[in-house]
Amino acid sequence: MYAIANAPCSWGVDDPTNPYLPPYEKVLSEAREAGYRSIELGPWRYLPTEPALLKQALASYGLSLVAGTLFDDLVSEANFPAMVALTHAVCSSLRQAPIATVEGAVPPPYLVIIDFGDADRARCAGQSARAKRLPEADWQRMIGHIRELCRIASQEYGVRPVIHPHAGGFIEFGDEIDRIAQDIPATEAGLCLDTGHLYYAGLDPVSWLRKYADRLDYLHFKDVNKARYQAAIAGKQDFFSACAAGVMCPLGTGDIDYPAIKGLLEELDWRGWITIEQERDPRDADGSLHDVTASLHYLRSVGF
């Protein structure tokens, strides 16, 4: 069986300042009740930041951590000092908490690095023809920023950095994934490809997992409601509004072919950590336990 975790975003936890977030105890207790033994850290400051309190909170529910995340503007020079400070904070927290382990994989913890924060680009999630691309100087500055964050994570903390293409960020579409893989070598960072974000970008998840099989250190699994996705693209909806409208759904109930993904991973003899996510409005978190339970049961039912 594959090692499978979940993440706080399945309870609507993306922005730690959102006033509607459920208590972190609800997320941890429901993750455990659903059958998970590991979870992502979520946005910084959602789970306790003091190491002893974080260890106590995780231990109370029998959970370990698999990854932490940077989810912010990685392009602008003005924001970069905050990203450096956040990298130190997240990686330090990961190194002091109980960490998930698995045989035969690039070992956790991972630092998942996601660009997000330009409002114009965010409004064009999944809309390649409309989405502006970064000018060359801005792209090169972003690459320099990401490489430095990767250096801090790997060399100062022993945390493996993985770059995550994300709907509404400047690393989303096929040309951008190809370029990031070319500009940042595997020695510096792996990839965390996300089936839902690939689909949202108009890409076939199986084809792109195959294409970058040698860079896949970590995987995110989502499923997408096709009708709601098509409505979001037709309506030029931003990604998180689409999530609040239910574009993401429990695994096995959407349009992504997980038996085909299972076949590919078997063919590749890939073994590593998979984290299930289902972004939603936190005001809808009462449905999270049902959905994260159903997703895990579905994956196990098709052989994961």
The helix-and-strand class reads alpha/beta
Counted up, domains total: 1
Overall 3D form:
globular
Oligomer: single chain
Beta-strand share of residues: 5-15%
Specify the CATH class. Answer: Alpha Beta
Order of strands side by side in the largest beta sheet? 1-10-7-6-5-4-3-2
How confident is the prediction overall: mean pLDDT? Answer: 97
Low-confidence segments: none
What is the element layout, followed by pairings?
Blueprint: E1 3-6, H1 24-34, E2 38-40, H2 51-60, E3 64-72, H3 80-96, E4 110-115, H4 119-122, H5 136-157, E5 160-163, H6 174-183, E6 190-194, H7 195-200, H8 205-211, E7 216-221, E8 223-224, H9 226-234, H10 239-244, E9 248-249, H11 258-268, E10 273-276, H12 288-301
Parallel strand pairs: 1-10, 2-3, 3-4, 4-5, 5-6, 6-7, 7-10
Antiparallel strand pairs: 8-9
Helix pairs in contact: 1-12, 3-5, 8-11
What does the model show?
It is a single chain. The protein is 42% helix and 15% strand. It has twelve helices and ten strands. The strands form two sheets. The protein has an eight-stranded parallel beta sheet. Strands 8-9 form a two-stranded antiparallel sheet. It has a single domain (3-301), classed as TIM Barrel (Alpha-Beta Barrel). It has 304 residues and is of the alpha/beta class.
Descriptors:
304 residues; alpha/beta; TIM Barrel; eight-stranded parallel β-sheet; 12 helices; 42% helix; globular
Short description:
The protein is α/β, with parallel strands linked by helices and 304 residues long. It has helices at 24-34, 51-60, 80-96, 119-122, 136-157, 174-183, 195-200, 205-211, 226-234, 239-244, 258-268, 288-301, and strands spanning 3-6, 38-40, 64-72, 110-115, 160-163, 190-194, 216-221, 223-224, 248-249, 273-276.
